[in-house]
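> forwarded from #structure-qc
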């Protein structure tokens, strides 16, 4: 691999892929990103319906009676402590965890588009079953089908968006998925707030392979695509030689990507506010309608803050947003005096904003762009699996922890936020502007990961440049 000095000496000949954002790519990515609407709705709706008295009375009567009889601070914290209720919420994430292991093979064999189609079919089946549910078993089976849909969509959509997008706009287009997820959560909060007013107890019922290989000029808006197409073709040749990606991903040379695919979703799912926002607000003494309304407010904050990420991710880079958002979340993951309800709402909104322009979208973007093509579906499968496993664990544990730890629970999660921010500072390289097929070279020049990635395995050798880690710029070199 060329030295930094050699790369610097060739900086005058620096050249980046000349492709630009075309209407075709924009519309394609916009349609793909709408899959996030269903993912977000499924995340947001469970917290809304579990705070509705009519829903609890029909399916979880023990929780309903406990809530009605709750008096004193201890009872307020423990009134939603029910393993059956948490199983209803977390069954979706457990199903998505299991699905993610076989969806990677589907994505590799049949392409990303058919994975997205399969997710849509599973979503429709799960929603229909939940809407017609007569008992808890039907509810949970419906949530499992929804979870399978999340597994399909969560694996295929981020990869599809990262592969379709021009390198300089990959962050912006990929975060479109997170924007749709936040809109889905906000929509679920609005539906819950409005449906809670329906009388009669019915308010809870909810009524390709890499595309650039086909027509690069049409996708990139220029005929000067030889460099990018050549790198893509070379990466595809390497990918075709890999027959056991699940085994190969464990090799030392892929250790940096594997570590990020595990730790980023692990840290990302330690933000629990969006899961149980209405429940948290009822815990501090707000009425049912007021709790749902405040959840709508936090959902709106979530959407607005995501636009901040879209506008800045390809200018400031991933690391700066990760760090700023983590510092903001960690500083506010504390419990203000319980009698100041407005203060609690403000704290939660600021915390949600920090998550929405950092760990929320970047936790999807970074894992989808760091893997080489030959192990990309398997890597994203691991990323989704860890994400769902951690979400399942948090969903199962949060209400019992709230009962036993009370306000101390917020300090517990605050400590984790500080730890994950330190991880970003020390171990996450900057990936803005870096072509997706040249991502490995960023790791070869990293102070820690460079020792894991052998020079001959770097995809930079296939292409025509080296990336300056400090700036994210691609420097031309002679090969």
């Amino acid at each position: 691999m060329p030295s930094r000095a050699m790369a610097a000496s060739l900086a005058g000949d620096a050249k980046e892929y000349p492709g630009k954002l075309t209407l075709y790519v924009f519309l394609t990515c916009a349609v793909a990103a709408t899959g996030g609407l269903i993912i977000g709705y499924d995340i947001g709706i469970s917290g809304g319906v579990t705070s509705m008295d009519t829903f609890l009375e029909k399916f979880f009567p023990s929780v309903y009676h406990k809530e009605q009889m709750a008096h004193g601070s201890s009872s307020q914290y423990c009134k939603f402590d029910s393993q059956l209720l948490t199983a209803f919420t977390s069954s979706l994430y457990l199903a998505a965890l299991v699905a993610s292991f076989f969806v990677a093979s589907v994505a590799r064999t049949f392409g990303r588009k058919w994975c997205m189609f399969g997710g849509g079919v599973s979503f429709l089946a799960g929603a229909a079953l939940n809407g017609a549910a007569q008992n808890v078993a039907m509810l949970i089976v419906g949530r499992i089908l929804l979870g399978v849909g999340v597994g399909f969509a969560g694996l295929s959509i981020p990869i599809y968006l990262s592969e379709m997008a021009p390198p300089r706009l990959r962050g912006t287009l990929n975060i479109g998925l997170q924007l749709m997820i936040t809109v889905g959560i906000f929509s679920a909060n609005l539906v819950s707030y409005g449906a809670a007013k329906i009388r009669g107890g019915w308010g809870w019922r909810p009524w390709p392979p890499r595309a650039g290989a086909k027509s690069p000029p049409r996708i990139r808006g220029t005929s000067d695509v030889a460099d990018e197409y050549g790198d893509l073709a070379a990466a595809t040749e390497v990918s075709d030689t890999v027959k056991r990606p699940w085994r190969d991903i464990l090799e030392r040379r892929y250790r940096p990507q594997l570590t990020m695919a595990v730790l980023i979703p692990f840290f990302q799912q330690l933000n629990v506010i969006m899961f149980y926002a209405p429940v948290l607000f009822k815990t501090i003494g707000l009425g049912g309608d007021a709790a749902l309304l405040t959840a709508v407010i936090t959902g709106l904050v979530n959407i607005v803050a995501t636009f901040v990420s879209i506008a800045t991710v390809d200018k400031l880079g991933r690391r700066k947003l990760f760090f700023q958002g983590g510092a903001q979340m960690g500083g506010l993951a504390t419990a203000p005096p319980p009698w100041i309800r407005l203060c609690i709402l403000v704290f939660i909104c600021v915390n949600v904003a920090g998550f929405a322009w950092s760990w929320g979208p970047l936790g999807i973007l970074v894992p989808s762009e760091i893997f080489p093509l030959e192990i990309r579906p398997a890597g994203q499968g691991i990323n989704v699996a860890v994400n769902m496993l951690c979400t399942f664990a948090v969903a199962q544990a949060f209400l019992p922890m709230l009962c036993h730890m009370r306000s101390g629970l917020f300090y517990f999660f605050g400590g984790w936020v500080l730890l994950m921010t330190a991880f970003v500072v020390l171990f996450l390289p900057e990936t803005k502007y870096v072509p997706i097929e040249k991502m490995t070279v960023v790791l070869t020049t990293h102070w820690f990961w460079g020792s894991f990635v052998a020079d001959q395995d770097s995809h930079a050798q296939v292409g025509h440049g080296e990336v300056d880690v400090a700036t994210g710029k691609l420097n031309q070199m002679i090969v």
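QC bot note: The first strand starts at residue 465 and ends at 468. The beta strands are 465-468, 473-476.
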